UniProtKB/TrEMBL annotation:
<dbReference type="InterPro" id="IPR016039">
    <property type="entry name" value="Thiolase-like"/>
</dbReference>
<keyword id="KW-0997">Cell inner membrane</keyword>
<feature type="active site" description="For beta-ketoacyl synthase activity">
    <location>
        <position position="168"/>
    </location>
</feature>
<keyword id="KW-1003">Cell membrane</keyword>
<dbReference type="Pfam" id="PF02801">
    <property type="entry name" value="Ketoacyl-synt_C"/>
</dbReference>
<keyword id="KW-0276">Fatty acid metabolism</keyword>
<comment type="function">
    <text>Involved in the type II fatty acid elongation cycle. Catalyzes the elongation of a wide range of acyl-ACP by the addition of two carbons from malonyl-ACP to an acyl acceptor. Can efficiently catalyze the conversion of palmitoleoyl-ACP (cis-hexadec-9-enoyl-ACP) to cis-vaccenoyl-ACP (cis-octadec-11-enoyl-ACP), an essential step in the thermal regulation of fatty acid composition.</text>
</comment>
<dbReference type="Pfam" id="PF00109">
    <property type="entry name" value="ketoacyl-synt"/>
</dbReference>
<comment type="similarity">
    <text>Belongs to the thiolase-like superfamily. Beta-ketoacyl-ACP synthases family.</text>
</comment>
<keyword id="KW-0275">Fatty acid biosynthesis</keyword>
<dbReference type="GO" id="GO:0006633">
    <property type="term" value="P:fatty acid biosynthetic process"/>
</dbReference>
<keyword id="KW-0812">Transmembrane</keyword>
<comment type="function">
    <text>Proposed to synthesize NOD factor fatty acyl chain. Involved in the synthesis of a highly unsaturated fatty acid moiety, which forms part of a lipo-oligosaccharide that is responsible for host specificity.</text>
</comment>
<protein>
    <recommendedName>
        <fullName>3-oxoacyl-[acyl-carrier-protein] synthase 2</fullName>
        <ecNumber>2.3.1.179</ecNumber>
    </recommendedName>
</protein>
<keyword id="KW-0444">Lipid biosynthesis</keyword>
<comment type="pathway">
    <text>Lipid metabolism; fatty acid biosynthesis.</text>
</comment>
<keyword id="KW-1133">Transmembrane helix</keyword>
Length: 416
């Protein structure tokens, strides 16, 4: 039991998800347990000249399910994903914002890159037709903080509101900072998470030039293979993951259905390299330690870790080293899987959907697998729950996220 009073304990009461394997939380989570694969050949643009031609692309998404058609046209795809996931999370939470103090409701939703599609299309208009053809909605559509802004406008949330940008750790940092905000008494309710829509020509070209993405184009379903000896890079995905957090005191007072407690958060920096993780995992170890301290639990209480697990040669090896470095003998007992094997890497949204996954696993007592793990890398020697979901008694889960710039975030979820 946490030593914090109820007004500082924080719980999850709502979840929302838009992902390559499901357009809502239930379909997303069921897809994870089934080992559903959301990777395919990209058809959002012509990939003929690109070394990577595959991704976790969301198809047949209708933004008007969550936004007025006019507003949907004015906003970038990442904001459309945000609103769809946020509306699901709020509906799931059962909160009636007409009864809430608007100054006590905040929003922290981030995007690692923001409105990439909007920027690329308007840059083309500028080059081909001149500045008068650039949309007057260009700036508000591309800036990352608009995800938080439109949610606040929708629900009249006048409390703390901003967007965190920390590359692939964005969603996790947004959730962690929301936890801190609630613990400090600055809000009663926080809507938080991450969103990304970067399956665009320029984003693909940049990652291809870095040689960061898989070129296993002949086998899209087998391309994202975290911890496997045959992995050759990450596969980009898109979507959004949103959580509604409340103080336990507030949730109890309104009779909310509580999913789990969010008990800990740790953030750190490798201070080592702009893109490569620290080879000894020092930054991640620090983030995990801080999360454990924040949750007031011991390392041997962790049952499961949702790994950053990108399917890149360096990340998977170094993340394994970090877990071994912190957990010692307990590393052999805990389970760790990478859901990116199914969704691809959602960049700034990864921490959001993976937090949704952790909360659902606690609730269901089932652990999502790492699919495509057929030939384990000798340097990756933990229990990655290979290929099939597993029933397990779970009390505490952790989610790790790492971002370019060496930025790390760890979140801890536990049964109440």
């Amino acid at each position: 039991m946490s030593e914090l009073p109820d007004n500082q304990r924080v719980v999850v009461t709502g979840l929302g998800a838009v992902t390559p394997i499901g357009m809502d939380v239930d379909s997303f989570f069921n897809g994870l347990l089934e080992g559903k694969n959301g990777i395919s050949h990209v058809d959002a643009f012509d990939t003929e000249k690109f070394t990577c031609k595959i991704g976790g692309q969301i198809r047949d998404f209708d933004p008007t399910v969550a936004m007025d058609p006019k507003e949907a046209r004015r906003n970038d795809r990442f904001v459309q994903f945000t609103m769809a996931a946020a509306k699901e999370a709020v509906a799931h939470s059962g909160i009636d914002f007409e009864k809430e103090d608007p100054d006590r409701v905040g929003v922290f939703v981030g995007s690692g890159i923001g409105g990439m599609d909007t920027m690329e299309k308007n840059a083309q208009k500028l080059l081909e037709s001149g500045p008068r053809k650039v949309s007057p909605f260009l700036i508000p559509a591309l800036i990352s903080n608009m995800a938080s802004g439109v949610i606040a406008i929708e629900y009249g949330a006048m409390g703390p509101n901003f967007s965190i940008v920390s590359a692939c750790a964005t969603g996790a940092h947004a959730i962690g900072e929301a936890l801190k905000t609630l613990r400090l008494g600055e809000a009663d309710v926080m809507i938080c998470g991450g969103s990304e829509a970067s399956i665009t020509p320029l984003a693909f070209a940049g990652f291809c030039s870095m040689k960061a993405m898989s070129t296993n184009n002949d086998d899209p379903k087998g391309a994202s293979r975290p911890f496997d000896a045959g992995r050759d890079g990450f596969v980009m995905g898109e979507g959004a993951g949103i959580l509604v957090l409340e103080t336990l005191e507030h949730a109890k007072a309104r009779g909310a259905d509580i999913i789990c407690e969010i008990a800990g958060y740790g953030a750190s920096c490798d201070a080592n390299h702009i893109t490569a993780p620290h080879p000894e995992g020092k930054g991640l170890i620090s983030a995990m330690k801080r999360a454990l301290n924040s949750a007031k639990i011991n390392s041997d209480q962790i049952d499961y870790i949702n790994a950053h697990g990108t399917s890149t040669p360096y990340n998977d090896k170094f993340e394994t080293a970090a877990v071994r470095g912190l957990y010692g003998d307990h590393a052999n007992k805990l389970m760790m899987s990478s859901t990116k094997s199914m969704t691809g890497h959602l960049l700034g949204a990864a921490g959001g959907i993976e937090s949704v996954a952790c909360a659902k696993m606690l609730q269901a007592g089932k652990v999502a697998p790492t699919i495509n793990l057929s030939t384990p890398d000798p340097d990756c020697d933990l229990d990655y729950v290979p290929n099939e979901a597993r029933e397990a008694k779970l009390s505490v889960t952790m989610s790790n996220s790492l971002g370019f710039g060496g930025q790390n975030a760890s979140l801890i979820f536990k049964t109440l």
